[in-house]
């Protein structure tokens, strides 16, 4: 069974519009990073989102599970665009 990539699945998703770490509001055009997890019924689901400043320290603690991924994206009109997978342990 093939799984959609987190980048594909999360393009266009509307995240919460503040960093989960420092609570800074995202403005259109900023880079954000997010953690997503995969479940069979719903596919990739956004769990947390951070500004670039917080992302480095937070994403280092991410485990190596294959149902978890870190994505990078641009916050645009309250949606995620140009989503790229940064870290995903599934091979
Ligand atoms: Zn932050």
Give an overview of the whole structure.
With 91 residues, the chain is mainly β. It has one domain (6-88). Helices cover 14% and strands 41% of the residues. It has two helices and four strands. The relative contact order is 0.29.
Question: How would you summarize what this structure contains?
Answer:
The chain is mainly β.
Question: Secondary structure elements and their pairing?
Answer:
Elements: H1 6-10, E1 31-39, E2 43-51, H2 52-59, E3 68-76, E4 79-88
Antiparallel strand pairs: 1-2, 1-3, 3-4
The structure holds zinc ion (ZN).
Strand content: 35-45%
Mean pLDDT: 90
Instruction: Classify the oligomer.
Output: single chain
Major sheet characteristics: 4 strands, antiparallel
- Tally of structural domains: 1
Tell me the radius of gyration: 12 Å
What global shape is seen? Answer: globular
SSE string: HEEHEE
Uncertain spans: none
* Structural class category: mainly beta
Bound ligands: zinc ion
């Amino acid at each position: 069974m093939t799984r959609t990539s987190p980048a594909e699945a999360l393009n266009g998703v509307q995240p919460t519009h503040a960093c989960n770490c420092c609570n800074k509001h995202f403005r259109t055009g900023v880079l954000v990073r997010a953690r997503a997890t995969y479940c069979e019924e719903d596919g990739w689901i956004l769990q947390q989102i951070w500004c670039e400043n917080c992302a480095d320290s937070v994403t280092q603690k991410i485990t190596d599970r294959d149902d978890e991924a870190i994505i990078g994206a641009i916050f645009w009109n309250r949606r995620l665009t140009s989503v790229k997978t940064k870290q995903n342990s599934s091979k």
